[in-house]
């Protein structure tokens, strides 16, 4: 059980930009019966973190609050109704209510906590959790991606995008990576992308049809929304699956419904956080599969940068610059961990 009553945390006292965030001393979180307390080792930076501090996310916490929702660390306390997680376990987790992770301790709903597979350190697990958890669920459960199919990844330089490129190749797909520039597409090429489309200079629809001999995409995973979505809504193959993950372009697009009708393709929502809460056993099975892919060298989570807790504003600014490819992590408590062979 945590004996601390206060801790260091990043605080959002008013809605604004990353540079408005401050390091402060706050009370440790009160634990609900179905929650666990985690001593945070590493927190992940994700695009929704940039929205929640501006008051533009679907979750609007009362001010002041601590942002951040993805953590890895050690369980130091469990609520009285928790049976699936034990004190001392190394875990990946989503912060309760979708915020609170940029701190020394965080509360998490026990059904949104996943044991870290043996052999993975806290940093690799943090780079894996949301990005690869989302991409794997999208490609496997939602799209049923098959070997030999063509996968288009919109936003292939981000954490989920790079994960989708790498997993797509591991699953035997032909992968087209769509990024703003060819420079930003270099990590996706390193991860095995077969084709690259740089939408600052090229038309996405023409590029996809050219690369597929006019057939279009069997599967498209879209993190961007906006004009990229509109291009892909006209570039799907018969029987295709257009996966909606997010809208980092800032534009939530509308779809002309005659397009999926004429092309016989599906538009499929991907909400991994809800999948984790509703299907924890299947989600844990996904992570065992991901761990096997890591052990066999088929995927390697790409960590683009590591920052101390005091530099969360710098990490969020780097994310928003769109010059970073891969996962940004926050080293919170610098825990030492004992690794186990797989």
Write the layout of secondary structure elements.
Blueprint: E1 6-11, E2 22-27, E3 35-44, H1 47-52, E4 70-78, E5 90-94, E6 105-109, E7 113-115, H2 122-142, E8 150-154, H3 159-170, E9 174-179, H4 186-190, E10 195-198, H5 204-211, E11 217-222, H6 226-233, E12 236-244, H7 258-263, E13 266-269, H8 272-278, H9 280-295, E14 303-308, H10 312-320, E15 327-331
Parallel strand pairs: 8-9, 8-11, 9-10, 11-12, 12-13, 14-15
Antiparallel strand pairs: 1-2, 3-4, 3-6, 3-15, 4-5, 5-7
Protein name: Oxidoreductase
Domain Enoyl reductase (ER): 16-330
Pfam family, one: ADH_N
Describe this structure in words.
The chain has helices at residues 47-52, 122-142, 159-170, 186-190, 204-211, 226-233, 258-263, 272-278, 280-295, 312-320; strands spanning 6-11, 22-27, 35-44, 70-78, 90-94, 105-109, 113-115, 150-154, 174-179, 195-198, 217-222, 236-244, 266-269, 303-308, 327-331. The chain has 342 residues and is an alpha/beta fold. Strands 3, 4, 5, 6, 7, 14 and 15 form a 7-stranded mixed sheet that branches. The model is unreliable at 336-342 (pLDDT under 50). GO terms for molecular function: oxidoreductase activity. It comes from Pseudomonas monteilii.
């Amino acid at each position: 059980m945590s004996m601390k009553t206060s801790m260091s945390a990043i605080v959002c006292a008013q809605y604004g930009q990353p540079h408005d965030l401050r390091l402060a001393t706050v009370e440790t979180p009160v634990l609900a019966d179905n929650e666990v307390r985690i001593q945070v080792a590493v927190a992940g930076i994700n695009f929704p973190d940039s929205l929640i501090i501006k008051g533009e996310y679907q979750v609007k916490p009362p001010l002041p609050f601590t942002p951040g929702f993805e953590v890895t660390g050690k369980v130091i306390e469990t609520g009285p109704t928790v049976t699936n997680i034990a004190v001392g376990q190394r875990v990946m987790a989503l912060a309760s209510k979708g915020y609170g992770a940029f701190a020394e301790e965080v509360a998490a709903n026990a059904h949104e906590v996943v044991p870290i597979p043996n052999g993975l350190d806290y940093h690799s697990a943090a780079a894996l959790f949301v990005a690869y958890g989302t991409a794997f669920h999208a490609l496997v459960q939602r799209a049923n991606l098959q070997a030999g199919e063509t996968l288009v990844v919109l936003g292939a330089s981000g954490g989920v995008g790079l994960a989708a490129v790498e997993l797509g190749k591991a699953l035997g797909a032909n992968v087209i990576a769509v990024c703003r520039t060819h420079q930003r597409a270099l990590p996706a090429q390193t991860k095995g992308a077969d084709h690259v489309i740089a939408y600052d200079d090229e038309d996405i629809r023409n590029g996809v049809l050219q690369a597929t001999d006019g057939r279009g995409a069997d599967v498209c995973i879209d993190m961007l929304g906006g004009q990229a979505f509109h291009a892909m809504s006209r570039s799907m193959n018969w029987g295709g699956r257009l996966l909606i993950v997010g809208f980092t372009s800032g534009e939530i697009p509308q779809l002309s419904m005659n397009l999926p009708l004429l092309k016989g393709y599906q538009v499929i929502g991907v909400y991994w956080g809800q999948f984790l809460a509703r299907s924890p056993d299947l989600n844990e099975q996904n992570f065992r599969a991901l761990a096997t892919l890591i052990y066999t060298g088929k995927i390697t989570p790409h960590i683009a940068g590591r920052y101390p807790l005091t530099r969360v504003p710098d990490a969020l600014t780097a994310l928003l610059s769109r010059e970073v490819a891969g996962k940004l992590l926050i080293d919170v408590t610098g825990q030492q961990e004992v690794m186990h062979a797989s």
